[in-house]
Amino acid sequence: MYNTLKRLYDTGRLPVVNLKNAVTLSWITAEQYQQITGETYSA
Fold first, then answer.
1. How far, in Å, are 8, 9, 11, 38 from residue 24 at the CA level?
2. pLDDT, tens digit, for every residue of 2-31?
3. What is the structure's pLDDT at 43?
4. What is the DSSP letter of 14?
5. C-alpha torsion 28→37→9→20, nearest 10
6. Residues 6+ away with beta carbon under 8 Å from 36
7. Do the beta carbons of residue 28 and residue 2 sit within 8 Å?
8. How far is CA 28 from CA 9, 10, 32, 40, in A?
9. What is the pLDDT of residue 5?
10. Stretch 37-41: mean pLDDT, rounded?
C-alpha cells in the first residue's frame, strides 16, 4: 500500500488529506506518512 500511495502522491493524484486518512485507517504508519510528505503527522 505504501508504494501505491507514494506514487499517487508524487504524481499529484493524492492530496495530503487522503494520506492522513490512510494513517487513520492503518494503511500506512505515521513514519511512512513522514517519508512520503516530509511533514510530521498530526491527527
1. 18, 17, 22, 18
2. 999 999 999 999 999 999 999 999 999 999
3. 80
4. S
5. 50
6. 2, 5, 6, 9, 19, 28
7. yes
8. 13, 16, 6, 14
9. 98
10. 96
